[in-house]
Amino acid sequence: MDGKWKPPISISISISIFLSLTTIFLSIPLSLSTPLQYQTLLLTSLPNPQTLSWPEALPEPEPEPEPEPETTTPLSVTLHHVDNLSPPLNSTPESLFRLRLRRDAVRVKALSTIAAVTQSNVSARPRTDFSSSIISGLAQGSGEYFTRLGIGTPAKYVYMVLDTGSDVVWIQCSPCRKCYTQADPVFDPKRSTSFLGVSCASPLCRRLDSPGCNNHRKCLYQVSYGDGSFTVGEFSTETLTFRRTKVDNVALGCGHDNEGLFVGAAGLLGLGRGKLSFPTQAGNRFGRKFSYCLVDRSASSKPSSMVFGESAVSKNAVFTPLLTNPKLDTFYYLGLSGISVGGTRVPGISESLFKLDAVGNGGVIVDSGTSVTRLTRPAYVALRDAFRAGASNLKRAPDFSLFDTCFDLSGKTEVKVPTVVLHFGGADVSLPASNYLIPVDSNGKFCFAFAGTMSGLSIIGNIQQQGFRVVFDLASNRVGFAPRGCA
């Protein structure tokens, strides 16, 4: 005997069995946990610059001679990305992408500022501050998508920015006291038989937040922005022609002094929810429904499109209710309750992070003019970390611009990446891999296409919307997402 107590054999076996069972029990969550779900990403490069020549870009169809019926009429238009319409001289795929990210940063800052302004007393704001019902996407980063439509009678076809983050419709008009350079001739209201100035006493004039009045008792509009950009001119009504469909009496700003804005388009078609937006004005004509489908420009030569009317609503769309910001009627707010990576809800991402409160703080909007989705910082960090863990088999690469999660995929044609699903109220939107892992150069570098923001406002951008038909059903107060909606 060495003087040390030894347990009986039966006790020793019991301890051994207990430890073994404990080990097995502790390993059960790992061995039986649901494996991560992956999908295949086919690797593509950044799209090469394409020049869409202005005169030959689209034919200018003659309007139908017979009068348009008063019943609901669907219409569709083709959308073009700004990089294809007016690429800078000697552009490369990399330089265009960096330019896109710079535009994006400007726009996100402006949208966040507009949302923040709603917290203050609107009536106490100076006239040169933001106007909630007239917000130009041009001052928010120049707009990403354009279409060609006719202005006036006879119709003069011009390129217009389409923007869900803006309300007012406006164009540059002659005589120009000061106008930026545009590709098409500046619209001359004197040559249109359907142009009509709005009187100062008109209810239409009073819809403006800061209306003015000239010596002829005609309504004036003036919109100024925090960066010094502004547009000033006569508020009027005019006929717009979408291919062969005419829409009469659309209220628009006829801008005679437009400064600090960008080169190219003639103006802007506001598609927001406000009282002066095109969908609100023409709502009865198109059943208060419209949709768009934005293609992945690096993987498809098919143009993007927009549809107004009943045919805008896809049968396979999943819908989530629109939320209302009591202080700002322009943006399309949605309820985001969580995000899944690899088939599992990301811990730390809850509905409370995206809550739109009673005074207009926070919330999530869907926006056509923002490229990269911005999530409030705590949500983004949780999403990023979950994706990094799921993509640990991919070779990491240095950060790129606003992206802090990048990978070196050079030499590969495809990779497996964890799935990403956005959970809206009543609608789970499963993103294609190309909507969240995107090329940032021509050398195989790909980055996770989300970013964090210190602003309370989260924005679902157009990269994440690619390939979906995004349906704005204002009649039923909802937004829908239809996968493969561009077909």
TrEMBL record:
Keywords: Hydrolase, Protease, Signal. The keyword Amino-acid biosynthesis does not apply. GO terms for biological process: proteolysis. The active site is at D163, D367. PROSITE patterns: PEPTIDASE_A1. It holds the Pfam family TAXi_N. Residues 59-69 have a biased composition (Acidic residues). Residues 52-74 are annotated as: Disordered. InterPro entries: Aspartic_peptidase_A1 (IPR001461), CND41-like (IPR033873), PEPTIDASE_A1 (IPR033121), Peptidase_aspartic_dom_sf (IPR021109), Plant_Aspart_Prot_A1 (IPR051708), TAXi_C (IPR032799), TAXi_N (IPR032861). Residues 145-482 form the Peptidase A1 domain. GO terms for molecular function: aspartic-type endopeptidase activity. Belongs to the peptidase A1 family. This is Peptidase A1 domain-containing protein. It comes from Buddleja alternifolia.
